[in-house]
Design brief:
Elements lengths: L1 E7 L2 E9 L3 H9 L5 E6 L4 H13 L3 E6 L9 H13 L7 E6 L1 H13 L6 E5 L2 H7 L4 E4 L7 E4 L4 E5 H5 L3 H17 L2 H10 L5 H18 L14 H11 L3 H20 L4 H10 L11 H7 L12 E7 L2 E6 L2 H10 L6 H4 L1 H4 L2
Parallel strand pairs: 2-9, 3-4, 3-5, 5-6, 6-9
Antiparallel strand pairs: 1-2, 7-8, 10-11
Length: 361
């Protein structure tokens, strides 16, 4: 079992536990506060697991209620958030009670958003049940809902603890392991090439305990160094500028969009910094079955959506690029670099397409 702690200066704010058979650890942490009530939020795939975690809490005398949210990204709607607020209110929840999210990245996103905003803050915990949640979404305190775009509204809310049971993730179907690999590989490219080497040698049969532990270690270190994303934390968005735009405009999954966005970022890095690893990135992503091109997608729609990227500032569009593996940098990008990024994923942008930037802001 491994424990990682996120720090805000000298103050520990969140503990991430990576291991197997974590039920007892979960109960101990849930009982460590003065909570009288626990709300367990699940989605259809995690309903039974949520019930499993509820039983020992009920046995300890806590009042436990459960609510099943819509599946996937459909949970990240303001209308769903309102439903949760009403559910908590009718259940008599106070600021001393506990909200537990059992599920993947979308579920932990909305759990944290509710935890931060209901009664101006209710403690929460996550049980991350997908690889993509374990290596990325559940770690770091960023929460969000979707409003006219991916993650447009959000707040920082660090859960008291994140439980990552490797046994649960080992049992995931191949497609969900592939989804998580997109984010794990991103982490490898920016900081820890051992993760990349694992996937290059073993593909989707890679040791997930090591993949998760290394990915969590990187994210915890980066978040502790830049708690509210003022500077270095932006490197965690490698591949996400184009990726989020693809996700918002095409309906592709987050993982597929990030994979394509990572290839685009590699091509942009090659144009901007003469980065030599772009083909290696593309090869390892493709080797595990992730898409690496977007030839059927609308380049103008994707480019316009990029204007809503949160890294954009008054001086224009910014992307995280690589000077080399392990050396990421957030930079303003030229039109030529954007065209190179699109060319890397099989899309073409004319100069007139880039001129839409002024009209869309």
């Amino acid at each position: 079992m491994a424990r990682h702690v996120i720090w805000n200066g000298d103050t520990p704010v969140s503990t991430i536990v990576v291991g197997r058979n974590l039920a007892n650890e979960f109960v101990e942490r849930a009982l460590s506060g003065s909570h009288r009530r626990v709300a367990i939020l699940t989605q259809p795939p995690t309903e039974s697991l949520g019930a499993t975690y509820a039983k020992p809490l009920i046995a300890e005398g806590l009042s436990v209620t459960t609510m099943t949210l819509p599946d996937g990204e459909d949970a990240k709607q303001l209308s769903v958030v309102e439903d949760i607020y009403r559910f908590l209110n009718t259940s008599g929840f106070t600021r001393n009670d506990l909200i537990v999210g059992v599920g993947g990245g979308a579920l932990t996103d909305v759990t944290g958003f509710v935890g931060a905003t209901y009664l101006r803050g209710v403690p929460c915990m996550y049980v991350a049940t997908t690889l993509i949640g374990a290596v990325d979404a559940a770690i770091g305190g960023k929460t969000a809902v979707n409003v006219d775009g991916k993650n447009l509204a959000g707040v920082f809310c660090h859960p008291e603890a994140v439980m990552i049971d490797v046994d649960t993730i080992d049992r995931l179907p191949e497609n969900l392991k592939r989804d998580g690999a997109a984010e794990a590989l991103k982490t490898g490219f920016i900081e820890d090439m051992r993760i990349v080497e694992l996937y290059e040698s073993d593909g989707l049969d890679s040791d997930l305990a090591e993949v998760i532990d290394r990915s969590v270690a990187v994210k915890v270190a980066v978040v502790s160094d830049d708690f509210t994303e003022q500077d270095r934390r932006a490197i965690l968005n490698y591949g996400h500028t184009v990726g989020h735009a693809i996700e918002s405009t095409t309906g592709r999954s987050h993982a597929e969009s990030v994979a394509i966005g990572t290839v685009a970022a590699g091509a942009a890095s090659e144009a901007e910094f003469s980065f030599t690893g772009a083909q290696r990135q593309k090869d390892v992503l493709a080797s595990i079955g992730l898409p690496v091109e977007a030839v059927e997608d609308d380049p103008v729609a994707i480019r316009m959506q990029m204007n809503s990227d949160k890294k954009r500032d008054d001086d224009g569009l910014r992307m995280v690029l690589l000077r080399d593996f392990g050396i990421p940098e957030l930079v303003h990008v030229t039109d030529a670099t954007v065209r190179a990024a699109f060319a890397g994923i099989g899309l073409s942008l004319a100069v007139r397409d880039l001129d839409t930037e002024e009209d869309s802001t």
